Amino acid sequence: MRVEQNRNVIIQRQKNMSKLNSLKELYVEELRDLYNAENQLLKALPKMAKAASSEELKDAIESHLEETQTHVNRLEQIFEELDEDPKGKTCKAMKGLIEEGQELAKQKGKKSVLDAGIISSAQKVEHYEIAGYGCVRTYANLLGFQEAATLLQSTLEEEAETDKKLTQLAESIINAQAAEAEEEEVEVK
Ligand SMILES: [Fe+2]
Ligand SMILES: [Fe+2]
């Protein structure tokens, strides 16, 4: 029984470690990584929104959740055209980024400070996705997959837009926090 289990584990590993002899193979491998990353996010974003205190931040995370579903759909469309399976990879980087974000959200402290921390976790996720989509978009162009390149570019732009929105939110939350701190100082005097 145990031998059989070990054999299955080895077969699974070999399946996950496909060979990379061509740009197309790398393209598919990286698309699978992103597909898994996006699916992890579908589960993590609602928890992140719940942990946020600011209504604006909650809204921003929730609207990015909807976009994330679109990103998954686009990847499925690309895989269908490639006649490849989107599953089979675990994005360890996204797993780590989400774990760090959840760790932070569990901490106690001032709401605005925790919100600033949630934003920073979310921005790290966006930057990972921006790097990933930038690469696969370029590969799609090089490989002559015009339609896929257009879809990947749309996702890339939405990730970048989210990152910008998060920066603006962070500035407003941190500014409010600074103003509060100043008021407290005045009170102490
Ligand atoms: Fe995404
Ligand atoms: Fe994203």
- How far is the N terminus from the C terminus? 74 Å
Task: Using the CA coordinates, give the radius of gyration.
Answer: 20 Å
Give the full name of the CATH homologous superfamily: Ferritin, core subunit, four-helix bundle
Question: Which residues sit in consecutive blocks of at least 5 with pLDDT less than 50?
Answer: none
CATH architecture classification name: Up-down Bundle
**Count of the domains:** 1
Mean pLDDT, all residues: 91
Percent in helix: over 70%
CATH class: Mainly Alpha
The small-molecule ligands in this entry are:
fe (ii) ion
Shape: globular
Secondary-structure element pattern, one letter each:
HHHHHH
Strand portion: under 5%
Report the total helices. Answer: 6
CATH topology: Ferritin
Structure class: mainly alpha
The largest sheet is: none
Number of E strands: 0
What features would you describe in this structure?
86% of the residues lie in helices and 0% in strands. It has 189 residues and is an all-alpha fold. Helix 2 (23-51) runs antiparallel to helix 5 (111-143). It has six helices and no strands. It has one domain (22-184): Ferritin, CATH 1.20.1260. The termini are far apart. Bound molecules: fe (ii) ion (2 copies).
Give keywords:
single chain, globular, mainly alpha, 189 residues
Secondary structure elements and pairings:
Layout: H1 2-16, H2 23-51, H3 55-82, H4 92-106, H5 111-143, H6 146-188
Helix pairs in contact: 2-3, 2-4, 2-5, 3-6, 4-5, 5-6
Bound molecules: fe (ii) ion (2 copies).
